[in-house]
Amino acid sequence: MDYNKVSKDILQLVGGEENVQSVIHCMTRLRFNLYDNTKADRVKLENMPAVMGTNISGDQFQIIIGNDVPNVYKAIIANSGLSDAKAGQPSSQKKNVLAAIFDVISGVFTPILPAIAGAGMIKGIIALAVTFGWLSEKSQAHTILSAIGDGAFYFLPLLLAVSAARKFGSNPYVAAAIGAAILHPDLTALLASGKSISFIGLPVTAATYSSTVIPILLAIWISSYVEKWIDRITPTSLKLIFVPTFTLLIVVPVTLITVGPLGAIMGNYLSVGVNYLFQHAGLIAMVLLAGTFSLIIMTGMHYALVPIMLNNIAQNGYDYLMPAMFLANMGQAGASFAVFLRSRNKTFKSLSMTTSITALMGITEPAMYGVNMRLKKPFVSALLGGAVGGAFYGITGVASYIVGGNAGLPGIPTFIGPTFVQAMIGLVIAFFAATIIAFLLGFEDVPSEEDDAQAKAEPQGNAAAGEIIHSPMKGEVKALSEVDDATFSGEVMGKGVAIEPEEGEVVSPVSGTITTVFQTKHALGITSDKGAEIIIHIGIDTVKLNGEHFTVHVQEGDVVTPGDQLVSFDMEAIKKAGYQLITPVIITNTERYQSVKPVKTAENVKPEEALIVLT
């Protein structure tokens, strides 16, 4: 793979470097925070050989690469002016509370996962060595190896403090100092002494902070506001001393008196709640979780469960969530293996086998996006396979006893404990259940190269041949090349035309269904009854107005006919705010048609007049 070329193509197709607020990566995905997700060409991205698929979780634009993601990420950083330092910048897009929480958790935990995964595997190896008598618990080697394995977990608040500070835009070293303070041996001993503790007359609740998650996240979130407030009111010459000094003096006591105990209590109740669910409805809970975990992974929200897993291990010594992830991965591997057994396409057969092995190793995106979801029925089979394995785990009470970063065969040491044998049996059940179900259900095979060549030789425009797209507004028709935006002028999103509006009204250009109404109200998507997919984008960069000066008259799912009112906008206010009003009308599924031709250019057009002909 040419990482330099791939990185440059990806940057172009996400709307250019200027559209990227920040980018990080996890095990298999590039995770972009874009200023405008509509500028990303998902169709062209997904057609890249290096890309397994794309996904939008909350406002985060994710590109699934697979095992090569670290190399692609490095090439993106090397070929652009982007850096991890941008991770703390605020996004211009509005997020709902749930999306914001998931974004924070993902952004905080993704950078530290290698440390947690490595330490977790070392703990598993130690447990395995002790079990088979290869290592004595009283040996010095055991003590040193245990320190290596336990260090990342005991000092987890320190790791999280640095990562959270980068996410919240505060000083990571001051954040580390906050984490170090609450883990100080003398303070830890005082909190564990059982004595009544106070600070300047305020009671300090005894709490344990080692290996905890929620207290430090809350502390650094508060610290980010305190630090910025102190920085704003402090003279420049005194910032170096005053800002960190007063941040520490305020945040650490606040953490010990209020935030820490609250976070610890929340973490305890969270762990108790999850464990109660599995102990009293273990079978149903595990079946549902194992059967739907692949859907959670698709959204990227599985990182939101990491704090719960860590709390479960810290509070109870075991966890039920990680086993469900294992079963889901085995289901994906089994379904992909069934495709290998049934497919007659030699190339796709090889891909299916390769991705099945990769999924067994804990990396499921290639199998999930490249094979199972593509064929649909195997994906359903993978979910059912995970659920069948979940039924076995629910009956036998399988749990994991070590936090690991890999939910595949390399992560098996996480199961070392009382239910190890049952855990291994369940993995086999999930794999073969998915294989058998997928094999019996069957699927529509991917055409061979000969079939593809024949298909390409046939006309493609039969579904919506001759369809006319009418004008959605009154104004002057212009070529897309005249739009001062590379995404539109370069036809990255598809072919079409642009209109310089004379009135602030947008009407429906076709009979069809509203498929997308952007939160910022500046754009919407329509799918016509004949299958044309249309985006009307009012103005350039108007996403930054966050919906101001726009009024939307429809919602997603509404059925419309030509001339129905869609959006009203205040032309003068938008111009006064410094934005162009030229409005691209794009056919985003251009590849379906032999031609996308404007009826007229450089002429005035009225609503419901013919604008574009699709053949």
From TrEMBL:
Tagged with keyword Transmembrane helix: yes
SUPFAM superfamilies xrefs: Duplicated hybrid motif, Glucose permease domain IIB
GO cellular component terms attached to this protein's record: plasma membrane
InterPro entries in UniProt: Dup_hybrid_motif, Glu_permease_IIB, PTrfase_EIIB_Cys, PTS_EIIA_1_perm, PTS_EIIC, PTS_EIIC_1, PTS_IIABC_b_glu, PTS_IIB_1
Record keywords: Cell membrane, Kinase, Membrane, Phosphotransferase system, Sugar transport, Transferase, Transmembrane, Transmembrane helix, Transport
Transmembrane residue ranges: 112-135, 147-166, 172-192, 199-221, 241-265, 277-300, 320-341, 379-403, 423-443
GO biological process: phosphoenolpyruvate-dependent sugar phosphotransferase system; trehalose transport
Domain PTS EIIB type-1: 4-86
Predominant location category: membrane
UniProt-annotated catalytic positions: C26
NCBIfam families: PTBA, PTS-II-ABC-beta
UniProt-recorded name of the protein: PTS beta-glucoside transporter subunit EIIBCA
Taxonomic lineage of the native organism: Bacteria, Bacillati, Bacillota, Bacilli, Bacillales
